[in-house]
Amino acid sequence: MRVLVVGNGGREHAIIQSLKKSKKIDALYAIAGNGGIAADAVTVDMDVKDVNKVAEWAVENKIDFAVVAPDDPLVLGAVNVLNEKGIPCFGPTKEAAIIEGSKIFSKNLMKKYGIPTASYETFSDMEKANAYLEKCDMPIVIKADGLALGKGVIIAENLDDAKAAVKGMMEDKMFGQSGANIVIEEFLTGPEVSVLSFTDGKTLVPMISSMDHKRALDDDKGLNTGGMGTVAPNPYYTESVAKECMEKIFIPTMNAMNAEGRTFKGCLYFGLMLTTKGPKVIEYNCRFGDPETQVVLPLLKTDLLEIMMAVANEKLSEIKVEFKKKSACCVIMASKGYPEKYEKGFEITFKTSRKNVFVAGAKLDGDKLLTNGGRVLGVTAVSGNLKGAIKKAYKKVSKINFANAYCRSDIGKRALKAYGEKI
Ligand code: AMP
Ligand code: GLY
User: Fold this and answer.
1) For the CA of 292, the nearest ligand
2) What is the pTM of this model?
């Protein structure tokens, strides 16, 4: 089969390395991919948001199956256009991708169907938002309705900061049109868990749980980033929590989307917070999480292409999805300065195998691989236990070099502590 993966980050590289294990694949393409992905797939330079052009390319190049990974093309309807042209896909239609594309949609969905989440109000008028804030307890959480590169969430500690956030989003348009409408929601506390799931609208199969590390600096300090590392499984996600999530959140969400006429087929991501009042949804994503995918897929035992095709054909119930009973740790090697200002264009050298080294931001210059983004590599290791996976991942990191490389030194520390262990 000729398979296309749409996207260009570490997540897509993890999907591609996993798909490559499938015997069914004869040719693997990536639009647009990156210089590192080029080692595992044929990369085609194209804007992933130009969904019509992507679909035309797929038809011309006789693609049998497409995987659309990032939020932007999904929300823009890449799967709709590809399906219209007769190409089966893994990924939701734009009608279903709205679960991530609009926070107001997802909050209203949860309210309507009784799915546990933070209490909230939505606003399209700044004065009304400010008047509401006067009555709120602090801290308070302010979210832009639309996509904002994962940055559209502000946690305000006091009323002044909260009003500044509302002004920034609604008047100053810090997230463009995404902030024209906002959600103001209750601040929750508790361990966070990411659960990715496969669903075809009839069956939902959760993948192994994971833990993201969003802040730039050790001990969860510094700015929010796209993610500085992940571990799987997540120690807080016990069997009883998993059962409760399945009953109160996962299945009700799948059913709610069906009831709304927006059947979700693809990877549905649940960002959860385990509060003292039970698990609550912090966010939905309509796609694989990044960098969660970099720890989840290396633990997958089942053929990924078979699962994805079963999802597209609504036959997920016929597949047994299995994960290795092991642990994984992914350490992001970033450019120093990320997520603010950083330099790029430095050569990356490897004194280790590139298996499970997922390239997020790099380009080729002849046969040299140069840094080309804030997050450069996701370096993953798998081991029998979490401690082993962490040690192996950092050992691998020590064998990869580029100028101005930066990584957190405590990925997995919090998870180990939850197991009562220390690094
Ligand atoms: P999101 O972009 O929705 O994943 O939000 C980014 C981060 O903000 C989450 O991972 C949480 O750490 C935090 N966050 C979002 N919503 C809330 C909330 N209601 N209460 C506390 N923290 C939150
Ligand atoms: N790691 C969170 C996300 O992919 O949005």
Assistant:
1) 2
2) 0.96
Pocket mutation for ligand 1, best pick of 273, 277, 286 (most atoms within 8 Å of C-beta): 273
Q: What is the phi/psi pair of residue 139, to 5°?
A: -65, 165
Determine the structural domain holding residue 362 and report its residue range: 327-418
| Domain assignment present for 50 | yes
Residues 180 and 238 in one domain: no
Q: Is 290 in the pocket of ligand 2 (CB under 6 A)?
A: yes
Nearest to 377 by CA among 11, 15, 68: 11
Residue nearest to atom 18 of ligand 1 (CA): 187
pLDDT > 80? residue 8 = yes
Q: Is the pLDDT of residue 170 over 80?
A: yes
Q: Identify which of 230, 286, 292, 358 to mutate to test ligand 2's pocket (most ligand atoms within 8 A of the CB).
A: 292
- Residue 99 counted as domain residue: no
Sign, Cα dihedral of 123, 129, 133, 135? negative
| Residues 358 and 314 reside in one and the same domain | no
pLDDT tens digits, one per residue of 356-371: 999 999 999 999 999 9
